[in-house]
User: What shape does this take?
Amino acid sequence: MKEEQRLLLLHSSSLFFPPQGLSFPSKTKRYFFSILLLTKTINFFILLFWFFIGVKLSYGTAGFRADASILKSTVHRVGILAALRSLKTQSVVGLMITASHNKVTDNGVKIVDPSGGMLTQEWEPFADQLASAQTPEAFLSLIIEFVEKEKIPLDGVQSAEILLGRDTRPSGESLLEAAKQGISSILGAIALDLGILTTPQLHWMVRARNKGMKATEPAYFEQISSSFRCLVDLIPNETKSSKMDNTVVVDGADGVGGEKLEVLKSMLTSLVIEVRNTGKGGGLLNDGVGADYLQKEKVVPRGFCSNDVGLRCASLDGDADRLVYFSVPTSSSRKIDLVDGDKILSLFALFIKEQLSILTKEGTEKLDNSYHARLGVIQTAYANGASTDYLKQSGLEVIFTPTGVKHLHEKAAQFDIGIYFEANGHGTILFSETWLSWLEARNNELGLASEGSEQQKAALRLLSVSKLINQAVGDALSCLLLVEVILQHKGWSIHKWNELYQDLPSRQLKVKVVDRTAVATTNAETVAISPPGIQEAIDAETAKYPKGRCFIRPSGTEDVIRVYAEASTQEAADSLAGSVAKIVDRFLGFSSSQQ
Ligand code: 16G
Ligand code: MG
Assistant: This one.
């Protein structure tokens, strides 16, 4: 490494020392720190570590996340990491400042890989090491070692480019500055600040840039609105004339999604979108609103009321990468009918399967029907068992992966068409390049042989879906448009859609434990392999309940163990979850469980 580069890194990281968690959120801590500085007899760093124990950050399921006041140094380091990633891959990467559905005082940072997906898992351990380096010197030697190991061209000759985005959190601006300073401490690295974006927009733009396509917000809106309009034009005449309600009311979670949807809605035809909780009315981000709140609490969000009974409603999370639907069944209760990610997945899977079977039906002579797309559906253990049964009965191949988009996405990419969704509303449909090229060719053939035929319409619909739906990551805005156009295509109300199958009653609990890393799991998180004996205890409890299913896993975003239980009645699901929470407590905990 050049001396100039070494000094730049050392200087820049000194500005952001002490590291994460050590940036004194309160006066008391500052005072305590001064005392520590004076205490020469005690090993300074051991004390520091002790003092901030519990705030050690890990890259987790979706980047680093914590109280915004302790994140500056971490974000600065992630800026450096992003520049290294860009140098290594010789491609554009992204850096997003968001804490998604967390409370407004939290924030977070994650890297978008050149493909538009999550940072490669191989770099996560290095991210963790960087975030916990305790001195600028230790930090620098970690970088030197890693740069050598990964053969990263850090000579100032190669250039690096990082696209930056942030959500609407007030802490976003100053954290973004820290990221910029991190990036500028790598010679040749350039940061391009794209301002306030949804997380999926940034993923989309990184992917687009690396494919040589236009990577601007207007280009994003143009692509998804025009493919939506194509799908609307291809709605069968029989359903077009049905008296379907074309209005959807969307809860924007008082975050970035609401304001972006306001722009998008003006570019659409045949759909009326009413956005509430846009973030402009003074409402607090994710506070009693948003997809995560609805999925967990199953009650009417702020801004909705008894007048909304029967309407088709949807809700985004704080950075608009999750979407759930709901309706208010009666004016006398706050309960909602939730239509979660599993049902969105089922709707998408049905539609794709239907179009594929039209496309490949026998009868069109001299055309190549031979490529039967391999269609896969990917879920996690949190998927409601009734959804899995429904999908399997519909003849679909269902595969399970551990929680976290990176796992689902990776699996989905192994199919010609891979549809993945988490119950929480994060998901998308991936189309392989090979299959899309075949589809383009097939569409051209059909255009010549039987223009306007049902088969050609099916080909056009599938091509439009591949442009509408975000190929980089789950995107609430594009998923919303796809749900809406499929409902119009089928002439379905939200109630009809919700009746595809009935969810099994379920309950989620979280348990605070001394050390959540003591729980290790296998089989897509359905079996706990440590601590020894815990799975046997869970199995024995589960066996007492008809249709019982239960698993535990350590959260990747909170310091808790999560418990999920399903059973034939709500009481039974509650009771099973409660008993297993006690088991977790007995094996690992401090005797406290809460929802
Ligand atoms: C993050 C993940 C989400 C996962 C959730 C689990 C991404 C973009 N998001 O929000 O996929 O379901 O974490 O949280 O990967 P948990 O580990 O705390 O249960
Ligand atoms: Mg989110």
Q: What stands out?
A: The two ends are 51 Å apart (CA to CA). The first strand starts at residue 64 and ends at 67.
